[in-house]
Fold this sequence. Notes:
The structure is a single chain. By secondary structure, this protein is an alpha/beta fold. It is built from four helices and five strands; from the N terminus they run H-E-E-H-E-H-E-E-H. The protein has a five-stranded mixed sheet with strand order 2-1-3-4-5. Helix 1 packs parallel to helix 4. It is globular. 40% of the residues are buried.
Amino acid sequence: MGFDLPFYMHQAIEEAKTGFDEGEVPIGALLVSREGAVLARAHNRTVGLSDPTAHAEILAIREACLVCRNYRLTGALLVVTVEPCPMCMGAVIHARVASLVYGVADPKWGAVDSLYEMASDSRLNHRVDVQGGLMETECRALMQAFFRLRRGKVA
């Protein structure tokens, strides 16, 4: 991956912070073309849109597909603050996203390395190159702050 990954992850974290401010679980995502252009950015909006599918990854994929005028995102890079869930990984695979970088693992819902390994599952017709743990501390801290606030605990 010849991209400036910390640069893109910083933008994904900013998206996650926007979600945090809106009362959404703070997950941010960016889709980047093979040339390095940001095609789409999104944060979770499940609460605001009353839509259980409005995860950051899904919203970014939808927007990038519109920008590219194609349902395939061949060669694209997805940068997301938290390891994607099974629904999001299904969309990543269907869209043929080439590479995925995530910040913090999700032991309860993660479908890349933690709970499932969909990105490398040989039974599926597409594999995704993965790098986990980029800016993990920052991504984890944002999630922890959100859930502490939600549970009424002071940091």
